[in-house]
Design brief:
Blueprint (H helix, E strand, L loop, with lengths): L12 H15 L11 H8 L3 H14 L2 E4 L3 E4 L12 H31 L2 H16 L4 H18 L3 H28 L4 H16 L3 H20 L2
Antiparallel strand pairs: 1-2
Helix pairs in contact: 1-3, 2-3, 3-7, 4-6, 4-7, 4-8, 4-9, 5-6, 5-8, 6-7, 7-9, 8-9
Organism: Paenibacillus roseopurpureus
GO molecular function: DNA binding; DNA-binding transcription factor activity
Pfam family, one: GntR
Length: 235
């Protein structure tokens, strides 16, 4: 008789918390719009660390079960998902797609940033400043924030004044639009970051471009995209 058994992977604490919170939502105990207890209270209730709670909330947010408002609390989504992409095979396809986009973006955009630092015009700097101001205005508006984020990255390509870079970024626009929402949400909550921190990273890239520091602009862009990639690899 064979004595081999299928190995069982221990369940992470955050997965247990995630499942229990999701069950409460599905049962109706936590209704749409309900405000969840604070991270501190949840951590005490589950007898786990705050990072475990944040990781569970991050996953539920990415699935569409929760709405996490920076500085405003965590709420059950008003419209609950009928199918959870992160639990289905669809998420793994999406994850692969996001990873592919990030892999190509790292090298294209770090090059774009370096050339933009070298070649940007006064008019382009003004356009950057307008876009950053817009990003600040819409910090709490998820869709508008994504649009402004995308515009910022496309502006860098245009400021490179390299037609091939511009064409490559234009060709990636649709894929970037499809993946940006997922990648932003995963980065925010897995890294315990906020829209303000993401905005500051964009400002740092812009400042390097304005200062015509090609190496710094390229490095900051690379680090910016590597953060998103590292979060995704841990999912």
């Amino acid at each position: 008789m064979s004595s081999s058994f299928q190995s069982i992977k221990p369940q992470k604490g955050s997965d247990i918390v995630q499942e229990q919170l999701k069950q409460r939502i599905e049962s109706g105990e936590y209704e749409p719009g309900y405000r969840l207890p604070s991270v501190v209270d949840l951590a005490a209730g589950f007898n786990v660390g705050r990072s475990t709670i944040r990781e569970a909330l991050s996953a539920l947010k990415a699935m569409g079960w929760l709405d996490i408002r920076h500085g405003g609390g965590t709420f059950v989504s008003k419209v609950l998902p009928t199918e959870t992409p992160l639990e289905s095979g669809d998420f793994f396809h999406r994850k692969e797609s996001i990873q592919e986009v990030l892999e190509i973006r790292k090298y294209i955009e770090s090059g774009c940033a370096a050339l933009a630092a070298k070649r940007r015009t006064k008019a382009e700097l003004e356009h950057f400043e307008q876009t950053i101001a817009r990003m600040h205005e819409v910090l709490e508006d998820e869709k508008a924030s994504e649009e402004a984020d995308l515009e910022f990255h496309l502006l860098i390509a245009k400021a490179s004044h390299n037609s091939l870079f511009i064409q490559m970024m234009d060709s990636l626009t649709k894929r970037m639009q499809e993946s940006m929402g997922d990648s932003r949400r995963l980065w925010f909550f897995s890294e315990l970051a906020s829209g303000q921190q993401l905005l500051e990273e964009h400002i740092g890239i812009y400042e390097a471009i304005r200062a015509q520091n090609e190496t710094l602009a390229s490095d900051r862009m690379m680090q910016h995209l590597l953060k998103v990639e590292s979060v995704l690899e841990n999912k």
